[in-house]
Amino acid sequence: MDNEKHMANLAVTIPSSIEVAVRQLSTQRNTSLDNLVDAALRGYLLSSPRRMYQISTSTALVEGVYSGSVSSSILLEHGDFGVGTFEGLDGEMVILDGEIYQAAGSVRRRSDDFLLPFASITHFRKDAVVPIEKTARLKDIELACDPHRVSENLFYALRVDSVFDAVHVRAVHPVPQGRRTPSERVRGFSASGYPGHSGCSHQEIFA
User: Fold this and answer.
1) Spelled out in words, what is the top-level CATH class assigned to the domain 52-200?
2) Which of 32, 115, 128, 204 is deepest in the core (most CB within 10 A)?
3) Exposed, middle or buried: residue 9 (CB in 10 Å: 0-12, 13-18, 19+)?
4) For residues 133 and 203, which has the higher predicted lDDT (pLDDT)?
């Protein structure tokens, strides 16, 4: 009851379509706008902060949609951990601790503001730490992580921290706008003695 004694007035600007929907729902439920907005805000603010923000789809990339549509600065407003790619598929994007890295034969940090065609990002929140013994294959890491996934229909943010004796990764050569992704444009490169981090925000992280 103490909280109800300290009510505040909040003036906000919302789209007219949202106003119409709110008023209609208020009438349907026979409740006041105050109660409806209060319930909606409580549900949003008190719900789990674990959300994923995604730009475009992998299907669009396969079909040749490689032009940038959302700026990197906007992307980072929605998280600090994720993956993606760059315009023209110019390398793989890794988002770690709020920094964007571009891997395309070498790895460099991108601090400029640029448009990107695809990315998935979330605010990373550690729920558990799972030690993994020395492994020789990516499949070993997959097998170690899979038991901690409770569903195939949920997204998971998995971060792998390690010192790797050797790492072989791949990235796509830049592809002309509108052309489908040819497998021959995927290139591989290696590094050794690399203290690294890896992660993804998709449930099919190792697929």
Assistant:
1) alpha beta
2) 115
3) exposed
4) 133
Radius of gyration of the chain (CA): 22
**153 neighbors 107 (Cβ within 8 angstroms):** no
Q: Other CB atoms closer than 10 Å to residue 56's CB: what's the count?
A: 20
Compute the distance between CA of residue 67 and CA of residue 46 in angstroms, rounded to an integer.
37
Is the pLDDT reported for residue 22 higher than 80? yes
Q: Kindly tell me the sign of the dihedral angle through the C-alpha atoms of 193, 195, 201, 204.
A: positive
Tokens 């591989």 correspond to 188
Which pLDDT tens digit goes with each residue over 160-189?
Answer: 888 877 777 777 777 765 566 555 445 554
Residue-range domain boundaries for the chain: 2-45, 52-200
* Integer Cα distance of 34 and 36 in angstroms: 6
Q: What is the DSSP letter of 173?
A: P
For residue 141, give the amino acid letter.
Answer: I
Q: Tally the C-alpha atoms within 13 A of residue 199's C-alpha that lie toward its C-beta.
A: 25
**What is d(CA 145, CA 139) in angstroms, rounded to the nearest whole number?**
10
Q: Does domain 2-45 have CATH number 2.60.40?
A: no
Which amino acid, one-letter code, is at 84?
Answer: G
